[in-house]
Design goal:
By secondary structure, the chain is an alpha+beta fold. Helices cover 35% and strands 17% of the residues. It has one domain. It has 16 helices and 13 strands. The strands form three sheets. An eight-stranded mixed β-sheet has the order 3-2-4-5-9-10-1-11. A hairpin with a 7-residue loop joins strand 2 (113-119) and strand 3 (127-132). Helix 14 packs across helix 16 (386-392).
């Protein structure tokens, strides 16, 4: 099922928000169940009814081509480029491409509001979804919040506001649920700007990660796992701290990631119109995936503000991925000196560009496949999309 019968919507409207979570421990807290759209959750939830294939056809007017390696990995797309803003937005996590597109769409009247995520006044990492109506509200949402975020909790506000043209910024699980109820929102036009997403945590889990990994966990403003095989932390004083992937205390962090993220196979946000991330681009550039004509329209708004270059691919990921599978499974943690040395070597000779993106996808998909197989074996066949089975099938997995 790829859409929801509109004649059920009146019944849905009568339901009040609830704290129930039908996906139970696999709930990603996308926010759908905080609204009367919970009526649709058994169809819409990515962790109850995985339907990426059907929704790709509904959204992009064609299925993913499983004979094309780039589409197997990166989803339906018209184009991929590397880009960065010529004049970065101050305080943005990278150069501010996402914020710039959202502001242009609002200023030009293409949309009446933008669903994005600010943070609470008390905690820079506590997400607070809003419908932004001014550029200032959009800018207040810059910088990723690496925690589970109930973006769809604002869906009721959208309908009550009377808005007809909307931009939603979100991650894969949120966007899959959004696409499933899209026809029920009463919109004339929905634009979806996605970011790739992997390994989110609860707020408590984030704190454990920061305290386990950073030299100054309480001053971290943002962080990202980057293409140079290091975690980059930005601190309040403007300084940057880097920690090699291979130096992470895996034995302490294996259980910190949300079960939903350990069960997710939509790293690249397959159902967005336009995706802006970093993993398929050279270091310090952003990776842009144009999935359809709507995505192209969105990118064109800021094209003259960007430096661009073609995507590139270098190296071979497969041996590194195969070696990483048992290492993660066994919680292997290297001494920091060895981790730094390995990081330097792999940065020089390891996969780059799109091959780095494939390395990251392979590493996470093999891990997640094992997680689902061991913890939810009854869901394995239906929950893992065909493209993910194709990717995982390249590797030998432990039992």
């Amino acid at each position: 099922m790829t859409s929801i019968d509109s004649n059920k919507h009146k019944k849905a409207r009568a339901l009040k928000p609830t704290s129930r979570r039908p996906a139970k421990e696999l709930c990603s807290e996308c926010g759908l169940c905080d609204t009367y759209y919970i009526h649709y959750v058994k169809v819409a939830c990515a962790f109850i009814n995985q339907q990426i294939g059907e929704l790709e056809t509904q959204t992009h007017n064609r299925p993913r081509n499983l004979e094309d390696e780039n589409e197997v990995y990166f989803g339906v797309h018209q184009d991929m480029i590397a880009a960065r803003k010529q004049e970065p937005i101050e305080g943005a996590q990278w150069t501010g491409i996402v914020s710039s597109i959202a502001i242009e769409m609002l200023n030009r009247g293409l949309v009446e509001g933008v669903v994005c995520v600010q943070n609470t006044k008390e905690d820079r990492f506590q997400p607070m979804p809003i419908i932004a109506r001014t550029p200032e509200e959009i800018l207040a949402a810059r910088v990723n919040k690496p925690t589970l975020s109930p973006n769809l909790s604002v869906l009721e506000q959208i309908e009550k506001s009377g808005m007809k043209r909307l931009l939603v910024i979100g991650v894969g699980c949120q966007i899959q649920a959004l696409r499933a109820v899209e026809k029920q929102l009463g919109l004339e036009k929905l634009y979806v700007l996605g970011t790739p997403c992997v390994d989110n945590v609860t707020r408590a889990g984030l704190q454990k990660f920061l305290e386990t990994t950073s030299r100054s966990p309480h001053t971290v403003v943002s962080y990202e796992f980057m293409q140079d095989y290091r975690v980059h932390f930005k601190h309040e004083d403007g300084s940057t701290e880097t920690v090699p992937f291979f130096g992470l205390k895996t034995n302490q962090l294996k259980d910190v990631f949300a079960p939903s993220c350990m069960s997710c196979f939509d790293y690249v946000n397959s159902l967005a119109d336009l995706v802006v991330g970093y993993m398929g681009a050279p270091f310090r550039w952003q990776w842009i995936v144009v999935r359809n004509d709507t995505g192209k329209e969105m990118l064109n708004l800021v094209q003259d503000q960007l430096d661009t270059q073609p995507v590139m691919s270098q190296g071979n990921r497969k041996e590194a991925v195969q070696q990483s599978i048992p290492a993660y499974d066994q919680g292997v943690t290297l001494p920091m000196w060895a981790a730094k040395l390995m990081g330097v070597v792999i940065e020089r000779i390891g996969p780059k560009g799109l091959e780095y993106a494939r390395f990251s996808i392979d590493s996470h998909f093999t891990r997640n496949y094992l997680y689902v197989k061991r913890n939810h074996p009854e869901k394995l066949e239906a929950h893992v999309p065909e493209f993910a089975k194709q990717i995982v099938g390249q590797y030998k997995l432990p039992e």
